[in-house]
Every structure is written in C-alpha cells, then in structure tokens.
Amino acid sequence: MQPVTPTHPETPRDSATVVLLRDTPAGLETLLQRRHAQMANMAGMYVFPGGKLDAADSEPASTALLDQGVDALHAGLGEPGTAAAIAAGLHVAALREALEECGLLLAEPAQPQARLDAPRARAMLREGQPFAQVLAQLGLRLATRQLAPWSRWITPLAPAMGTRRFDTRFFVAQAPEGQTALHDNEETTESLWLTPRTALEQYRDGRIELAPPQIMSLAQLARHATVRDVIAAARLQPPPTILPEAYDQDGVRTICYPGDPLHSVRERALPGPTRLSRQARHFLPEDGFEALFL
Fold it and tell me: Which residue among 23, 131, 222, 263 is least packed, with the fewest CB closer than 10 Å?
C-alpha cells in the first residue's frame, strides 16, 4: 500500500464532541444527529453532537461557571501539553454543543431558586446570548462531573471525508432525565437514538451515513451493556489519542489506526479492527462487518 501524501495539510482545530447515552429496555442507546445536507463538512452524516472550541469557552466568564476547578479538568483530560484553560474550555464546548445542537442541558442550580429549563436556555443561546451569560442569568453552573473524557481523534493529514481537520476530544455522558433531545433544523436535521450495533447495521445497509470515527466509536460502545459501564471504562485510563493514517492501493482507501502493522504507532489504542477499507460506499474491516465487534 502507498501512504496518502497531503498537499497542504491544515492545522487541526480544537473541538469537542459529547457522546450522549441512555439505558433502555433494548439496551444501551446513543444519540446520533444528521448534519444538514448543505454543510461544508460531513454533510448528511450522522454524528455525535459537537463542534469547534470557541474562544469564549476558555475565558474566565465561562470557567467560573464550572462545578469543579480548571486544574482538575486539566488533569482528567490527560493532556499535559494542553493549556489548562483550553482543557477546561473543551468541557465547556462539549456542554455548549449539547445544548445548541440537541437541546440537552447538563447543568445544576448554582442558586437556591434556580431550576433547569433547557428549552429556555437553548432559546436564549439561539437569540445570540453568550453561553456564560445564559447560565449566569438562569443561576446555573455546568455539570462537568457528568462528563468523562473518552478519546481524542485527530483528522488524518489527508482527510477521507471533507477538507477540514479537527483535534476532537470525545466525552461520554448520560443524557439528562426529563429532557428531550431535538435537532436544531439548522446544523442538524434529524435525531436518532439507537443501540450502537443497530446504528452500525443501518450504516452497513445504507440507511445512514457514518464517518470512520463514529464507526470505530460505536464499535467500542457496543462492547458495553449500560451507561454506567461506559463511564466506568472511560474513567479507568487516560483517553487514547487516535491519529489515523491513510493508504491507497489500486484506488481503494484504507485507514489504519494505532496498533496496525502499517501505522507509525505500534501500541493499540482501541479494541476491534486496526484498519477500515473503503468497500463500495462504506468503510468496513477487511475481515467483514462482524470484525467490528471482535
């Protein structure tokens, strides 16, 4: 195989994604949202809620509204080379995106008379009020203790989908009870709660479109039975960093992950297959669909 050589590699943008989970009679489910077909990046794909880090996310006005200190969040993220303010800001970004994109507010009262009102908070945000201002006016602080850092995905130097590169921290969290996830009809146009295996089966069958980070993340989630299991596993070790490396052979794109013989990092980062190959319209393991779960 020949490595794919980028022409003008872009510096990845810091971003955050929150993998929202719930327990149901059908098993563990996660929220996926379909990106608008007119979006410049990953149009029409089903993704976990998330977006890029805004400058305001790391400013004192935002970090003052956290339920734990900046140093604790920095330590939990497991990135000594990342500034503490950025580490805290990534937690803020994850929770802000959860509210913006699906209307879920992971927060708690900071004042005795305050109450969680996710629809109102989202409406204020959509009116253009800064996130920190919304929280302060509602007397709330962000519940970062409900987030567990899970993984860090860096877009390959030669992206397989889209043109932008992101340095995305994935967090896992239980969806707040009593709140309803709803897409915003701007960036996202559909919301689905699915078990991880069902989501992957729908991708295999051409019913939904997924990008490789979602494929591998769903395969990882499928190994757990409950939300508690996922969060406990996330807290057991520092989040792995995954920078996929792309190869082409006879026009077939293959994406390799740490631990694969072709990858520059020899230590495995994730369970399951260490590479996905483009087969028709899908990225799948070379050994077939079931290899995702082995």
Answer: 23
Radius of gyration of the chain (CA): 19
The residue ranges of DSSP E strands in 26-155, in sequence order, are 27-35, 46-47, 50-52, 107-109, 140-142, 148-154
Domain layout of the chain by residue ranges: 2-293
Neighbours of 136 (CB within 10 A): 17
Count the neighbouring beta carbons within 10 Å of the beta carbon of residue 39: 15
Residue type at position 18 = V
Q: What is the pLDDT of residues 64-95, one digit of tens each?
A: 999 999 999 999 999 999 999 999 999 999 99
Contact 53, 13 (CB under 8 A): yes
**Top-level class of domain 2-293:** alpha beta
CB atoms within 10 A of CB 221: 23
Residues 224 and 172: their CA atoms lie apart, in Å, by 13
